[in-house]
Amino acid sequence: GQQVMQIPQYQHVQEGEDFTTYCNSSTTLSNIQWYKQRPGGHPVFLIQLVKSGEVKKQKRLTFQFGEAKKNSSLHITATQTTDVGTYFCRHDGGATNKLIFGTGTLLAVQP
Amino acid sequence: DTEVTQTPKHLVMGMTNKKSLKCEQHMGHRAMYWYKQKAKKPPELMFVYSYEKLSINESVPSRFSPECPNSSLLNLHLHALQPEDSALYLCASSQPDRGGYTFGSGTRLTVV
Predict the structure, then answer these.
(1) Gap between the Cα atoms of A2 and B70, Å rounded
(2) I need a surface site. Which of A13, A87, A89, B31 has the fewest CB within 10 A?
(3) Dmax (CA) of chain B
(4) Inter-chain contact A33–B100, Cβ cutoff 8 Å?
């Protein structure tokens, strides 16, 4: 089946530092979505990317979809303690129609 | 209304009990989902309903039985669960085949 790996699994940063998580697929993706889950909370939808090479920004967050549509990244500039949580990518799995979450990256931010 | 409401928030049940988890949304979404999430793991898809019809069952054991009475409601009936079924059960909704999912806050289930 399709595998969606995220790296790193865990990252600890000082407040104000930047953070990036990567989502990598073995096959071409039709689209990719990003979610944030705070500790003890539920996943919250952040954004969807559809086009090859697409870049979208939300304040300090920048999302990219690779040219080959096999990878994506989420970059946070100048992290804040409110950014703490696990960031998941999710894709629709193409022809298999499986709705797959990536393995997630847990971000810890030290004030 | 932009929320997915799940009840109960917490549930403790014995292995011989029968219980139901409930999920409700009023956003006009025609796809609804059940996910199971263990600690420190991503959500794992269980069932998908599209236009009130079951479209995906991810080989879930029959002790979990979903039901979609109408376009706003989704239930998950539980019977004879095992301790390893203890997890956070998340309901989500979306428009079919497009857009992001809106998740409920989940039911934290403990099987004793």
Answers:
(1) 32
(2) A13
(3) 39
(4) yes
- Residue A6 has which token pair? 């995220």
Tokens of A32: 């990719």
What dihedral do alpha carbons B53, B84, A92, B102 form, nearest 10°? 70
Q: What is the DSSP string of A25-82?
A: ESS--S-EEEEEE-TTS-EEEEEEE-STT-EEEETTEEEEE-TTSSEEEEEESS--GG
What SS3 string covers chain B?
A: CCCEEEECCEEEECCCCEEEEEEEECCCCCEEEEEEECCCCCCEEEEEEECCEEEEECCCCCCEEEEEEECCEEEEEEECCCHHHCEEEEEEEEECCEEEEEECCCEEEEEC
Give chain A positions within 8 Å (CB) of B3.
none
With beta carbons under 8 A apart, name residues in chain B contacting A47: 100
Torsions phi, psi of A27, nearest 5? -130, 165
Query: B34: distance to nearest CA of chain A, Å?
Result: 11
Instruction: Tokens 């304040």: give the residue.
Output: A59
pLDDT in tens, A37-87: 999 999 999 999 999 999 999 999 999 999 999 999 999 999 999 999 999
